């Protein structure tokens, strides 16, 4: 009897505990859709045969198909069955990192000879940015980050989740669809001394608007005057112009001027390794001893986040960058990708002008890289989607990688149709 009563009390206790565990997550609401990934979801759900996706930030060939580079395929063939799948160190592949920083800073850069660069493998460019944001918060807790308007939307999320206060600085000029250089420089001058600034090394996302070499030199000079800290996000090295050295020019200018910079690199776009999530974060230090200390701290930050990075992508990047023949083939393929995008810019602008559009479309070819900041309003973008089944983000950003010889005329006609606006709208520069 006593045993039965004890079991009854035990079951009752379990029942009470089960009841008490309900409703833990009642307050959780569905998260808003990502503005970029949500475009792809909508595109995939559309059954119209003429649908076009110019929202995705991934390279496509002229048939609209994903591309795996020959250099990557050859690297895969060479490493197949020859490498183990053991954990990498917290800082990732040392060999891959060494080749990455050579690509960013130059083979013969003094900072490399002096071993002043603390660098770790990261989870592509996003992971590199997040590592640096956490590093900034931990070791400069009083600091904030200045972010350009506009920028890649995820930049705001990254520094927000690292609890780093954010400010913004002027970058894009809507009326000219170019760089608002005067306002940018004013913001640099007016920011408190020693501020952190996020800079896009090349092919600014989403605008495709980059400073000229002379403008970069002026920016660098003013950073020295104000003792600002430059953090470069370089997601498109080689992919913008087809020349990896040219696309790293901003970084080289800052190096020549003696800045200590940090740089996030990604191999998603320029090697087509989107799903491999391979990148690099590097921080230039005072000397070799400091570089060792900084690297150790970056590794400690990585440890509770993801422990260590994946190995396969790192092997591919190292194999390509360390082999002269594979590297030459890769450079050739990068230029082919960049040239195709440049060609599609010319074709889109040409088609729009041939349609007799009263608007200037010079910015389509003046901008560079994967994205064209078209200047279309959210309402015009909505019409493109609802009437023509053309998908892009509502800020009017067109991924030129999604434009092909097969759809460029259709795209131009649709854009021409939705941008027929009143004279008042045109004069106000709304389009």
Automatic annotation (TrEMBL):
EC number(s) for this protein?
A: 2.6.1.1
Q: Which GO terms describe its molecular function?
A: L-aspartate:2-oxoglutarate aminotransferase activity; pyridoxal phosphate binding
> Which protein, by its recorded name, is this?
Aspartate aminotransferase
**One GO term describing the cellular component:** mitochondrion
In Gene Ontology terms, what is a biological process of this protein? amino acid metabolic process
Signal sequence interval, chain numbering:
none
Q: What else is known?
A: In eukaryotes there are cytoplasmic, mitochondrial and chloroplastic isozymes.
Which cofactors are named for this entry?
Answer: pyridoxal 5'-phosphate
Alphabetical list of InterPro entries matching this protein: Aminotransferase_I/II_large, Asp_trans, NHTrfase_class1_PyrdxlP-BS, PyrdxlP-dep_Trfase, PyrdxlP-dep_Trfase_major, PyrdxlP-dep_Trfase_small
Q: Which reaction does it catalyse?
A: L-aspartate + 2-oxoglutarate = oxaloacetate + L-glutamate
Concerning PROSITE patterns, the annotation shows: AA_TRANSFER_CLASS_1
Q: List, alphabetically, the CDD domains matched.
A: AAT_like
PANTHER family in the cross-refs: ASPARTATE AMINOTRANSFERASE (PTHR11879), ASPARTATE AMINOTRANSFERASE, MITOCHONDRIAL (PTHR11879:SF54)
Domain Aminotransferase class I/classII large, by residue range, is 50-415
Quote the subunit structure annotation: Homodimer.
Annotated Pfam families: Aminotran_1_2
Q: Does the keyword Transferase apply?
A: yes
Which key words tag this protein in UniProt?
Answer: Aminotransferase, Pyridoxal phosphate, Transferase
Task: Please indicate if the UniProt record lists Transferase as a keyword.
Answer: yes
Which source organism does the UniProt entry give? Picea sitchensis (Sitka spruce)
Family according to the record: Belongs to the class-I pyridoxal-phosphate-dependent aminotransferase family.
Top-rank taxon, per record: Eukaryota
């Amino acid at each position: 009897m006593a045993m039965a009563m004890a079991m009854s009390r035990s079951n009752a206790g379990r029942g009470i505990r089960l009841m008490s565990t309900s409703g833990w997550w009642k307050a959780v609401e569905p998260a808003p859709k990502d503005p970029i990934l949500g475009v792809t979801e909508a595109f995939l759900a559309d059954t119209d045969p003429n649908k076009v996706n110019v929202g995705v930030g991934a390279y496509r060939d002229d048939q609209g198909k994903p591309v795996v580079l020959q250099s990557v395929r050859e690297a895969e063939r060479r490493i197949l069955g020859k490498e183990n799948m053991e954990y990498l160190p917290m800082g990732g592949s040392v060999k891959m990192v060494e080749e990455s920083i050579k690509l960013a800073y130059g083979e013969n850069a003094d900072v490399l000879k002096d071993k002043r660069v603390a660098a770790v493998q990261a989870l592509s460019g996003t992971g590199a940015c997040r590592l640096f944001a956490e590093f900034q918060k931990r070791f400069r807790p009083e600091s904030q980050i200045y972010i350009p308007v506009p920028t890649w939307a995820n930049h705001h999320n990254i520094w927000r989740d690292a609890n780093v206060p954010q400010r913004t600085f002027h970058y894009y000029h809507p009326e000219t669809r170019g760089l608002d250089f005067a306002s940018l420089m004013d913001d640099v001058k007016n920011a408190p001394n020693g501020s952190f600034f996020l800079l896009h090394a090349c092919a600014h996302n989403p605008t495709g608007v980059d400073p000229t070499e002379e403008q970069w030199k002026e920016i660098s000079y003013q950073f020295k005057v104000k003792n600002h800290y430059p953090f470069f996000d370089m997601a498109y090295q080689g992919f913008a112009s087809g020349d990896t050295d040219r696309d790293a020019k901003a970084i080289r200018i800052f190096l020549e001027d003696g800045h200590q910079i940090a740089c996030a690199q990604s191999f998603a776009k320029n090697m087509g390794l989107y799903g491999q999530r391979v990148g690099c974060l590097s921080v230039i230090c005072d000397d070799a001893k400091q570089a060792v200390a900084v690297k150790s701290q970056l590794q400690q930050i990585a440890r509770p986040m993801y422990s260590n990075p994946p190995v396969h992508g790192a092997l591919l990047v190292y194999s390509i960058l360390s082999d002269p023949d594979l590297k030459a083939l890769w450079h050739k393929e990068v230029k082919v990708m960049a040239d195709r995008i440049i060609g599609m810019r010319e074709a889109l602008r040409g088609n729009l002008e041939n349609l007799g559009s009263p608007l200037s479309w010079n910015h389509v070819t003046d901008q560079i890289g994967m994205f064209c900041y078209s200047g279309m309003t959210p309402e015009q973008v909505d019409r493109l989607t609802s009437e023509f089944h053309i998908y892009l983000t509502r800020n009017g950003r067109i991924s030129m990688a999604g434009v092909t010889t097969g759809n460029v005329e259709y795209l131009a006609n649709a854009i021409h149709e939705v941008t027929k606006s009143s004279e008042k709208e045109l004069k106000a520069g709304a389009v």
